[in-house]
Amino acid sequence: MSRDVRAVAARVITALLEERGSLARLLPAAEDKVEERDRSLLRELCYGCARTAPRLQLIAAKLLRKKPTDAAVNALILLGLYQLEYTRIPDHAAISATVNAARSLGLDRATGVINGVLRNALRNAEQLQRKLSGNPQFSSMHPAWLQQQIKAAWPSQASDIFRANNTNPPMTLRVNTAKISRAEYLQQLDDTGLSAEACAISPVGITLVEPVSVNILPGFAEGLVSVQDESAQLAALLLAPFEGARVLDACAAPGGKSCHLLEQQASIHLSALDIEETRLVRIEENLQRCGQHAELICADVTQPDAWWDGQQYDHILLDAPCSATGVIRRNPDIKLLRRETDIVELATLQSKILRTLWPLLKPGGQLVYATCSSLPTENSEVVAAFIADTEDASDNTPEQLNDKPWGEKQVAGMQLLPQTGGGDGFYYALLSKAE
Amino acid sequence: MAKLEILEFPDPRLREVAKPVAEVTDAHRQLLDDMFETMYDAPGIGLAAIQVHVQERIVVVDISEDGSEPFGFINPEIEVLDPEIHQYDEGCLSVPGFYETVERPRRVRVKALDRNGEPFAMEAEGLLAVCIQHEVDHLDGKLFVDYISPLKRNRIRSKLEKSQRRRA
Question: Where is the active site (chain B) (predicted)?
Answer without folding.
Answer: 135
